[in-house]
Amino acid sequence: MNKLFLTDHSASAGSKKTTGTVPRLFSAFSASLVRKTAAALSLIFAVSSIAAAPFAAAMNVQAAAHSEDQVVLRICNWEEYIDLGDWDEEETIDLESGDIIGENSLIEDFEEWYSETYGLNVKVEYSTFGTNEDLYNMLTLGDVYDLVCPSEYMFMKLMSEDMLMPLSDDFFDEADENNYYVNGVSPYIRNIFDTHEINGELWSKYAAGYMWGITGIVYNPDALTHEDASTWKILNDPAYKRQITIKDNVRDSYFAALGALKADLLTSEEFRSDENYAQRLEEEMNDVSPEAIAMVQDYLQDVKNNAYSFETDSGKVDMITGKVLANYQWSGDAVYTMDQAEEDDYYLNFAVPEESTNIYFDGWVMLKSGISQDPRKQHAAEAFINFCSRPDNVIRNMYYIGYTSVIAGGEDERIFEYVDWCYGAEEDEEDTVEYPLGYFFVNDSEDEDYILTVPEEQLQRQLGAQYPSADAISRSCIMVYFDAEKNDLINQMWINVRCFNIHDVPVWTWILTVIVIAGLVWLFVQARQRQKLYR
Amino acid sequence: MHVLKFSRKSLGIPYALFLILFVALPLLVLFYYAFTNGQGQFTTKNFTGFFTDPNTLGTLCYSFAIALVTTIVCLLIAYPTAYILAVSKLRQKHVLILLLIMPMWINFSLRITALKEILTLIEGNLAYYPFLNAVVGMTYDFLPFMILPIYNTISRLDGSLIEAAKDLGANDTSAFLKVTLPLSVPGIVSGISMVFLPAMTNYVVLDMLYNSTYIMGSLIGSYFSAYNWHGGSMIALILLAIIIAFTILTRGMEESDNRGVGGALL
User: Fold this and answer.
1) Number of domains into which chain B is organized
2) Are residues A119 and A221 in the same domain?
């Protein structure tokens, strides 16, 4: 059984919220090659169709007839965030209930499945985005999509701007066996989508979850203990000067800073045992009062002088190559990092900070501008969500991209079986512990059917990141979408942290600059005068 | 005759289209965003904001400092190199020049990644030297742009001028200082403008070499990801103005050498 389930597929996959680096450049290169080939082919086609004008006319009629019973679905998703198929034979996931392997891309499989199930052809136009902000900018610039997959704060923003189309009642019909989403979504996740709202509207009215995760610290266990790494305060700890990377985006940095600044309160017994703990935690970790913002700014300025770097993508590689000892990471990327390091027999661990961890979701939402009252389009979009939620496809996606699906499978046991396949202990293994995952699969941590027996070390490894413990989940909280005014303040704070302030220029620099400029002017004047002499 | 005239004009159409689509239109859009606010009303707040915000001014200074040091380092390396190349009697000179240009044929991010590993070997922990890293990275990236124009100018110098100087009693040093150096100024100016200006905005180098302080390019990016297109456009516009001013200032010197310098080899 292949427990190190990352192979060459995941080597090119598994990064959320990234900007391109070397592997991605290659994929961009091959994509452009494909496009060029396509362009060349269409040119040849165009030329030959002129040569065969009578036939072309007949073909056009056919094409028109064809497009009438075909729906075009424009989807925009994160880069490297869906199974593109083409697995090697040996990568087959051999569950007891049957083998699972990605032969074709999930998108092609969907087109086939849709026409078989609903008797209508659908053509998916699939594109990708790099950050939530990029997606938003693309939408404001006039790009039209039917179905997109932003993070929770971004779909909250889209909801508040009335850009989304509500999911239909049919989508939530549990009697329909093709409704894999509603029949398979984790009750824990479903509860979150059914209780969180913006402007009085629930998330679940517009959004269906795709992947989720938490934030934490990947660390080198030879250099740090688990306790050292289990706090946000590590980011400005002088003991690890220039040894830790932090995320290069304002929201993740803000959350970590708040966690560190409020550590005493958040870890106090009194706060923990408060009956409104969850609600109070969410308030504290979404504190955007001017005082909090000022405190965060000071803290992040310290972090800037203490951390190795702010990074979006390079942190994973720097962690694997040992350039840094610890790394602020999203759980999906943490799994990727640990897997990659393991291939070089280098074992890294993952810690969830004691104060609180940011739980995040990426969810499918339909755009009004794209669907535009076309019921066939809406049906295809909802069917796509359902197809991605079918347990075998869920497993393919998780294997391919390393993130955790919101789908638990419902009646279908295969997803739990897959987790066991990845992390479960061998029968003769010693030092095993029980790991209850009932909170995710059936909303009951005590449920004996959902207790894994795993090697103890897995608690601090991939399992702890991909399916966090119930304990870690108990101190997780969502970071909501802030209104425009608060957003401006936070973004300004971020610019203050990152920019070189002109008041910090030392006096001697000003004096030196003045001297140099004066010298240059003098030289210039001298040269001019000499020129006059020659004339 | 008439037909020829017509066809010449039409030859210019692709370029005119290119100019309109990719130069004129974007500039108009840039102007529009720079002088409007979120509600689409005219405002000069973005403009005054640039000169009153200690962050943007500080970033301008920081970018300027990096670009200045990079340019000086490039010049110190490039001038002797170009001079030796130009005056040497080597038969295979073009091979040496090819060696200088060749790194530019390798993917940029691959080169910087390699540089990162080399610097880590030398420095240990890169994060302690952000300014130095930025300068080294930029120098590595832009050095050929400095060498080639200087080489072009020096190699086209009339050798008889130096012979005349020596006939009139100048030794090697003063012949260089009074003849070769002043005559190669156009090449130096062209090299400076090809290094200094890109160095002010090339933030990818800084990102990849762990410099967490913004320069002009990254500041524009951060405005855009905060949906503030107006402030970002204004910064881009002011940078453009600085670049145009710089070009006009240096043009006079370049025109004195009308044999054409610059990246002819590129």
Assistant:
1) 1
2) no
Instruction: Look at A16-20, A103-107, A431-435, B79-83 and tell me which has the smallest mean pLDDT.
Output: A16-20
Query: Tens digit of pLDDT for each residue in A156-174?
Result: 999 999 999 999 999 999 9
What is the separation of C-alpha A387 from the centre of its chain, rounded to a whole number of angstroms? 20
| Domain presence at residue A106 | yes
- Assess contact for A189 and A212: CB atoms under 8 A: yes
Q: How many Å apart are CA A64 and CA A55, to the nearest integer?
A: 14
Label the pairing between strands A326-330 and A244-247: parallel
What per-residue confidence (pLDDT) applies to A409?
Answer: 92
Nearest CA in chain B to A25: B109
Task: Provide the pLDDT for residue A475.
Answer: 94
Residues A73-111 pLDDT 10s: 999 999 999 999 999 998 999 998 889 999 999 999 999
What's the rounded Cα separation, in Å, for the pair B216 and A55? 57
Q: Which domain-ending residue is among A372, A392, A412?
A: A412
Q: Are residues A147 and A225 in the same domain?
A: no
Q: Residue A338: which of A439, A460, A245 has the closest Cα? A: A460
A371 and A270 together in one domain:
no
Phi, psi of A97 (to 5 degrees): -80, 5
**At B214, which CATH number?**
1.10.3720.10
Strands A70-78, A121-129: pairing kind:
parallel
Inside any domain, residue A265: yes
Q: Is residue B232 part of a domain?
A: yes
> Is B113 within the bounds of a domain?
yes
Domain count, chain A: 3
Question: Is A283 a domain residue?
Answer: yes
C-alpha to C-alpha distance for A248 and A315, rounded to whole angstroms = 10
Q: How far is B7 from chain A (nearest CA, A)?
A: 26
Q: Which is more confidently placed, A430 or A354?
A: A354
Which residues are CB-contacts of A167 (< 8 A; sequence separation ≥ 6)?
A204, A205, A206, A207, A208, A366, A382
Interface probe, candidates A26, A140, A141, A499, chain B, greatest B C-beta count within 10 A: A499
Q: Does B125 touch chain A (CB under 8 A)?
A: yes
Domain containing residue B243: 53-255
In which element (H, E) is residue A311 found? strand A309-311
pLDDT digits (tens, 9 = 90+) for B136-161: 999 999 999 999 999 999 999 888 99
Reference B55, options A471, A327, A503, A24; nearest CA is: A503
Contact A307 B227 (CB under 8 A): no
Domain assignment of residue A516, yes or no? yes
Q: Is residue B47 part of a domain?
A: no
Can you tell me the distance from the alpha carbon of A254 to that of A292, in angstroms, rounded to the nearest whole number? 10
The pLDDT value recorded for residue A351 is 96
Cβ distance of A133 and B225 shorter than 8 Å: yes
Q: Which of residues 129-148 of A touch B (CB under 8 A)?
A: 131, 133-134, 136-137, 140
| Residues A222 and A169 placed together within one structural domain of the fold | no
Quick: pLDDT tens for B86-138. 888 877 888 888 888 888 888 888 999 999 999 999 988 888 999 999 999 99
Tell me, yes or no, if the pTM score tops 0.90: no
d(CA A141, CA A145): 12
Rounded Cα gap, residues A408 and A454, in angstroms: 19
What is the domain range of residue A312?
A: 215-358+469-496
Q: What pLDDT, in 10s, does the model give residues A350-374?
A: 999 999 999 999 999 999 999 988 9
The CATH number linked to A306 is 3.40.190.10
- In this structure, the answer to whether residues A44 and A168 fall within a common structural domain is yes
B213 touching A (Cβ < 8 Å)? yes
Q: Give yes or no: residues A348 and A235 share one domain.
A: yes
Dihedral over Cα of A30, A36, A38, A44: its sign: negative
